[in-house]
Amino acid sequence: QEQFVESGGGLVQPGGSLRLSCVASGFRFSNYHMSWYRQAPGMERELVAAIRTTGSILYYADSVKGRFTISRDNAKNTVYLQMNSVKPEDMSVYYCNQYVVQRAWGQGTQVTVSS
């Protein structure tokens, strides 16, 4: 079945950068639009960014436009999220999943923003 393994999170200072990775398995990765979500404590999971099978951009949340970049490597079954100019409000657990229909969630990767 579909699986997602996120990594790359950690502690980052405001204004800093992080690159998240997600390795997907259990399906033909290149055939699916992919997305990154995040969920902060007590909040609903929200869509952050999405990318088409071809690598063109589907969506960025207004809160991350101009700061985050989603990309993918179909040969590696991997989707990335480059996070620049990180803000305290970006602190969340970040997850990847398919875009159209979400499958079982992975464990996510924690991003902590603190000076």
Structure report:
The chain has 115 residues and is mainly β. It is 0% helix and 49% strand. It has no helices and 10 strands. The strands form 2 sheets. It has a 6-stranded mixed beta sheet with strand order 2-10-9-4-5-6, with no helix packed on it. Strands 1-3-8-7 form a 4-stranded antiparallel beta sheet, with no helix packed on it. A hairpin with a 4-residue loop joins β7 (68-73) and β8. The radius of gyration is 13 Å and the shape is globular. The termini are far apart.
Q: Which strand order do you get reading across the main beta sheet?
A: 2-10-9-4-5-6
Number of helices: 0
Structural class: mainly beta
Strand count: 10
Report the mean per-residue pLDDT as an integer.
Answer: 97
Sketch the topology as an H/E string, one letter per element. Answer: EEEEEEEEEE
Largest sheet: 6 strands, mixed
How far is the first residue's CA from the last residue's CA? Answer: 40 Å
> What percentage of amino acids are in beta strands?
over 45%
Globally, the shape reads: globular
Kindly state the percentage of residues in helix: under 10%
Radius of gyration: 13 Å
Task: Provide a short characterization of the protein structure.
Helix content is 0%, strand content 49%. With 115 residues, the protein is mainly beta.
How are the elements arranged and paired?
Elements: E1 3-7, E2 10-12, E3 18-25, E4 34-39, E5 46-51, E6 57-60, E7 68-73, E8 78-83, E9 92-98, E10 109-113
Parallel strand pairs: 2-10
Antiparallel strand pairs: 1-3, 3-8, 4-5, 4-9, 5-6, 7-8, 9-10
Give structural attributes:
mainly beta, four-stranded antiparallel β-sheet, 49% strand, 115 residues
